[in-house]
Each structure stands twice: as C-alpha cells, then as structure tokens.
C-alpha cells in the first residue's frame, strides 16, 4: 500500500539492500555485508519482500555487490 501511495503521487520507489540486510553484522556504509545462507533459506525470508515488490511494480532495486 505504501508503494501504491507513492506511485499515486508520481514518486519513484527504490527497494534497498537486496538480497537482504537483516542478518549482517557490518554497516553497509562502512564495509561489505555478507549473507551466508542457502538459497532455500534466502527464499524463505530475505527474498520474500523483494519478490512481492517486483510482482507489484517496484521501480528500482538497490543491490549490494562486491
């Protein structure tokens, strides 16, 4: 609903910190966080919100890469 509200006002939404930032111990402004999980574990938690946003029209996704 938040994304739909932004879109209704012509505001572009960016989903941040793909594939997930919750299980890291490094601040991404200071270092490169890593998520060392299996694909099954990622799909069960970290990837869910991104899949939902992609399926409902998110404009951009910020990915953390090395």
Q: What does this protein look like?
A:
This protein has one domain (2-63). It is 33% helix and 14% strand. It has helices spanning 2-8, 39-44, 48-56; strands at residues 14-18, 60-63. The chain is built from 3 helices and 2 strands; from the N terminus they run H-E-H-H-E. The radius of gyration is 13 Å and the shape is flat. It is α+β, with helices and mostly antiparallel strands.
Short description:
With 66 residues, this protein is of the alpha+beta class. It has helices at 2-8, 39-44, 48-56, and strands at residues 14-18, 60-63.
What distinguishing features does this structure have?
66 residues, 3 helices, 33% helix, 14% strand, alpha+beta
What order do the helices and strands come in, and which of them pair?
Blueprint: H1 2-8, E1 14-18, H2 39-44, H3 48-56, E2 60-63
Parallel strand pairs: 1-2
């Amino acid at each position: 609903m938040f994304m739909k509200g932004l879109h209704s006002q012509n505001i572009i939404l960016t989903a941040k910190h793909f594939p997930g930032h919750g299980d890291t111990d490094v601040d991404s402004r200071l270092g490169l966080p890593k998520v060392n999980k299996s694909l099954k574990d990622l799909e069960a938690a970290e990837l869910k919100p991104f899949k939902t946003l992609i399926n409902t029209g998110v404009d951009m996704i910020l990915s953390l890469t090395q």
